[in-house]
């Protein structure tokens, strides 16, 4: 088995383990709510709220969050179109899925990219909250696997992309 098949097999195995072994009514609610924390509406509302804040430090945070979010989203969309990885619930049998609004391709996870982009940027401004925000961003990523719309590698790539975007924007812009 070549390395790509090995990774693909491991990705599918881990997806099925998370998606089927954790399944319960409480997590159905929690994971759906978690995934919506990184929705366009939630993130745009956060960015606008911070950008319009009278405190210049919070306003700067808002601007940098917006730029990081835009950068990471553009890069994620380029990857989605270049890789064309079909969402797991369309090709993997026996997944527990919850129908949510999604596009066709899964790599990288846009929700995870956005969650890490915002969480890392806030943590760079306010380092004491990193222990709250990183688990929250991770929960958003795990929710995408739990809901059957992403493979673990999609989520991992999204976390890396969002994190790199925030560091780039924080230190360069």
Structure description:
With 173 residues, the chain is mostly helical. It has one domain (3-172): Up-down Bundle (Vanadium-containing Chloroperoxidase, domain 1), CATH 1.20.144.10. The chain is 75% helix and 0% strand. The longest helix is centred in the middle third of the chain and has 28 residues, at 56-83. The mean pLDDT is 90. Its main location: membrane. The chain crosses the membrane at residues 27-51, 57-79, 129-149, 155-172. Residues 63-170 form the Phosphatidic acid phosphatase type 2/haloperoxidase domain. Pfam families: PAP2. InterPro entries: PAP2/HPO, PAP2/HPO_sf.
Strands, helices and their partners?
Elements: H1 3-21, H2 25-37, H3 40-51, H4 56-83, H5 88-91, H6 110-125, H7 130-146, H8 152-172
Helix pairs in contact: 2-7, 3-4, 4-6, 4-8, 6-7, 6-8, 7-8
Name the descriptors:
single chain; 173 residues; mainly alpha; Vanadium-containing Chloroperoxidase, domain 1; 8 helices; 75% helix; hydrolase; membrane; cell membrane; transmembrane helix; PAP2/HPO_sf
């Amino acid at each position: 088995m070549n390395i790509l098949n090995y990774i693909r097999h491991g990705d599918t195995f881990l997806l099925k383990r998370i998606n089927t072994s954790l399944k319960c009514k409480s997590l159905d609610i929690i994971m759906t709510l978690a995934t919506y924390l990184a929705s366009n509406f939630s993130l745009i509302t956060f960015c606008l709220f911070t950008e319009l804040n009278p405190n210049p430090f919070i306003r700067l945070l808002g601007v940098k969050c917006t730029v990081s979010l835009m950068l990471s989203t553009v890069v994620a969309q380029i990857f989605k179109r270049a890789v064309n990885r079909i969402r797991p619930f369309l090709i993997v049998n026996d997944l527990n899925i919850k129908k949510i609004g999604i596009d066709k391709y899964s790599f990288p996870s846009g929700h995870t990219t956005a969650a890490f982009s915002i969480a890392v940027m806030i943590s760079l401004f306010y380092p004491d909250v990193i222990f709250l925000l990183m688990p929250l961003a991770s929960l958003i990523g795990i929710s995408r696997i739990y809901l059957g719309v992403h493979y673990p590698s999609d989520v991992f790539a999204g976390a890396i992309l969002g994190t790199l975007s925030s560091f780039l924007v924080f230190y360069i812009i």
